[in-house]
Design brief:
The complex is a heterodimer of chains A (317) and B (421). Chain A has 317 residues and is an alpha/beta fold. Chain A is built from 14 helices and eight strands. Classes of the chains: A alpha/beta (317), B alpha/beta (421). Chains A and B meet through helix 7, helix 8, helix 9, helix 10 and helix 11 of A and helix 5, helix 6, helix 7, helix 8 and strand 10 of B. The complex binds zinc ion. Residues 29, 31-32, 34, 48, 50-51, 53 of chain B line the site of zinc ion.
């Protein structure tokens, strides 16, 4: 288990519990009791900590290396996943994964950034930072979904689009713009979940959807707290302030009516119970799919546009 | 209609006054460092007379330079929520806004106006880089939406001139949301079959480049403009190598297939007029043929028959030989209620050239009277509302052969019209 800096007290307690457990063979009765007491204490601490996460702490949870990623969702939520590769004009970008799958009976297209889970896969997926090919593949898959009238699910988890020379040369800006446009055009249900980090243009490129959900401890922002601090405060020391000011938590975004709903995470964050997190997301997606299926393609497109036109009338007081 | 009475309160601003600059002022070119006499610089539209560097210009100056006779009508932009996040960095956002407004040409980083270019009605939205780096927040998004709605109502092309570092961070996620919102805006224009042209100026980066700015039917750029998604320092820090020569400049983007043309500011107006003409007057100018007495039955059904052609699914930007083939069809086409700006001409023809056919001329009149003058108001609303549904080929306006009013700079392709006037 990887602990975040603010989880140190919890880590210590859990370490102690682990030690005591190894001692139980020495048959002292109160060890059992002691373990239970410590466990209750650890849980209380975990509950307290996670009920009061600051925006910066949430950012850290959202980036937790053991948080479930796109691949975890796919292997648990869908059957017959068929990954589809390439943008048909330049290349294949492993930062964005996508394909056809059966989700609770429904054929569907799944698209999302994959961050990877160890050094090799992180490098392979470029830490979830896509290049133009990735966004163009996403557009291709969205059009495929539209052609066969199957719903689209996008799982967003990216620090942002990749800032590289080649990416710029091949039209990173255009690829993102066109991806947003495609999201807004397709005449099938499009449902998005921010499962970890919703990093700026790289996120909205996949998340201009009919319904947008966020996991409880995910974040979604126009710029990373680090980037914002360095531009507006001209100092990396103000990252926490930037996280605070940007209002990037699921709870604030719900108040701003930018997202439709916050999906609860297990106690201590998604990383503590991947299966429960993924199932909770699956249930929300299934319900919403049933709701959206009642609308015609034209209505879905119109509703999606209207939804975005409405955003921005509400502020935080 | 309600939208127009609410938001489009036109304040005629003819020939906006130039700042008073003392006669002996020289300016230094930020690129080559040479001194340029300010009058020379103004005459060259603020393009360095030594090296061709394009100095930044504000929205007023840009519009004065592009619209016919420098005349245009700015529209008042919708009021939007101020400082929605109560954002504070080293300074309060509300204070930054107040300071920016005190110095600015408009209430936020965008100015929207309508006017004519070479006679074509055009709606223009220009960014003001001097207003918080031209950054895009809710107000800018609303400005682009207003511009798009106005273009749809007037059936006019939309020209957008970004000059922006990207999203306005102080509005957090709500600034990010302007990316889909402005995409909806320009798609409304495109779905109505109206040209959406982007002129990228220095700089166009971040969330602005990654939304409406890269979605133009045509994309022009001013020489030397920095255009791209990520900032150069960020890229350098990521790739840890020197960036290529000319990286993210207009010419570089053109060479990499992202921009149609890089156009010198001094040629810009003519170039845009030509392009708008090519996109809106897609068939040869109508030739007026005398129609034998009594052979013309052009009333209700004929006109109604003109409408559905629009839905026949063929790419309407193509020339339509049928239009020119039979003289009798011309008036019906021209009278179709799909182009506001067209009707002025059809009236000219109907009343001026077809005098023998009196009933027809009279018939044409009530219709044109209804839809001609108050260009902003008539059926624009209706069509704007349904724009979302038509999904693609409603190239109604562009199917019509002409949209020009009467300007001397209109290419003299239509002597008949001149005669009629
Ligand atoms: Zn110079």
């Amino acid at each position: 288990m990887h602990f975040l800096d603010f989880e140190k007290p919890i880590a210590e307690l859990e370490g102690k519990i682990e030690e005591l457990r190894h001692l139980t063979d020495d048959s002292e009765v109160n060890i059992q009791e002691e373990v239970q007491k410590l466990q209750a204490k650890a849980e209380r601490l975990l509950r307290q900590t996670y009920a009061r996460l600051t925006p910066w702490q949430k950012t850290q949870v959202a980036r937790h290396p053991e948080r479930p990623h796109f691949g975890d969702y796919i292997s648990r939520l869908v059957d017959d996943f068929q990954p589809l590769a390439g943008d048909r004009s330049y290349g294949e970008d492993p930062a964005i994964q996508g394909g056809l799958a059966r989700f609770r009976g429904f054929s569907s297209v799944w698209i999302g950034q994959e961050k990877g889970h160890d050094t090799a896969t992180r490098v392979r997926h470029n830490f979830g930072m896509a290049r133009p090919e990735g966004y163009r593949k996403a557009q291709r898959l969205m059009r495929l979904a539209e052609r066969f009238q199957v719903p689209i699910f996008t799982l967003v988890d990216t620090p942002g689009a990749y800032p590289g020379v080649g990416a710029e040369e091949r039209g990173q800006a255009e690829a993102i713009a066109r991806s947003i446009e495609t999201c807004l055009e397709v005449k099938v249900p499009l449902i998005s979940v921010i499962i970890g980090e919703g990093g700026s243009g790289g996120a909205i490129a996949l998340a201009s959807a009919n319904s947008v959900y966020m996991l409880e401890h995910s974040v979604y922002s126009v710029i990373s707290p680090e980037g914002c601090a360095s531009i507006l405060w001209r100092s990396g020391e103000h990252t926490k302030d930037a996280a605070e000011q940007l209002k990037l938590t699921a709870q604030d975004l719900h108040k701003l009516q930018v997202i439709d709903r916050v999906i609860e995470e297990p106690l201590g964050g998604a990383q503590r119970d991947k299966a429960a997190t993924i199932d909770a997301v699956g249930d929300v997606l299934e319900d919403e799919l049933h709701r959206l299926r009642a609308f015609t393609g034209g209505a879905l497109k119109r509703k999606r546009r209207d939804k975005y036109l409405e955003i921005g009338r509400v502020g935080l007081s | 209609m309600s939208w127009i009475s609410n938001y489009v309160r036109p304040k005629i601003r003819a020939l906006v006054t130039r700042q008073d600059i003392p006669d002996d002022l020289w300016e230094k070119c930020p690129d080559c460092g040479q001194m340029i006499f300010h009058r020379e610089l103004e005459k060259a539209l603020r393009v360095c007379t030594h090296c061709g560097y394009h100095l930044r210009i504000g929205p007023n100056e840009r519009m004065r330079l592009l619209f016919d006779s420098g005349q245009f009508t700015p529209i008042e932009l919708p009021e939007t929520i101020q400082d929605p996040l109560k954002f504070r960095d080293r300074k309060r956002y509300s204070d930054r806004l107040r300071e920016a407004r005190a110095k600015a040409e408009a209430t936020d980083a965008i100015m929207v106006a309508h006017g004519r270019m070479g006679g074509h009605p055009v709606v223009m939205a220009c960014f003001d880089f001097s207003f918080m780096g031209g950054s895009m927040g809710i107000a800018v998004g609303e400005g682009l939406l207003a511009a798009a709605r106005l273009a749809c109502m007037q059936e006019a092309p939309l020209l957008v001139v970004p000059a922006s570092g990207g999203a306005r961070m102080q509005e957090g996620i709500l600034s990010l949301m302007q990316m889909p919102r402005t995409t909806v805006a320009v798609d409304m224009v495109k779905e109505k079959g109206l040209p959406y042209v982007v002129l990228l100026t220095d700089p166009t980066t971040g969330g602005v480049s990654a939304s409406f700015a890269m979605l133009g039917d045509l994309t022009l750029a001013e020489p030397g403009s920095v255009i791209g998604f990520a900032g150069q320092r960020v890229i350098e820090a990521t790739v840890r190598e020197q960036l290529p020569e000319g990286f993210q400049r207009a010419e570089y983007l053109r060479d990499h297939g992202m921009v149609d043309q890089v156009v010198d500011r001094r040629e810009l107006r003519d170039r845009l007029i030509t392009l708008f003409g090519l996109l809106t007057r897609t068939t040869p100018e109508a030739r007026i043929v005398r129609i034998p007495e009594g052979s013309l039955k052009l009333d209700g059904p004929r006109v109604a028959g003109g409408g559905p052609r629009i839905d026949d699914g063929r790419p309407t930007a193509e020339p339509q030989p049928a239009d020119t083939g039979e003289a009798q069809q011309q008036p019906a086409e021209k009278r179709s209620s799909w182009s506001l700006s067209l009707t002025g001409r059809s009236r000219d023809k109907a009343s001026g050239d077809k005098t023998p056919d009196k009933p027809k001329a009279e018939k044409a009149k009530p219709e044109t009277a209804k839809s001609d003058r108050p260009k902003d108001t008539q059926k624009g609303d209706k069509q704007a509302d349904s724009a979302g549904e038509t999904g693609g080929h409603a190239h109604a306006a562009s199917a019509d052969p002409h949209q020009a009013g009467g300007d001397d700079e209109t290419p003299a392709t239509d002597p008949d019209r001149r005669a009629a006037e």
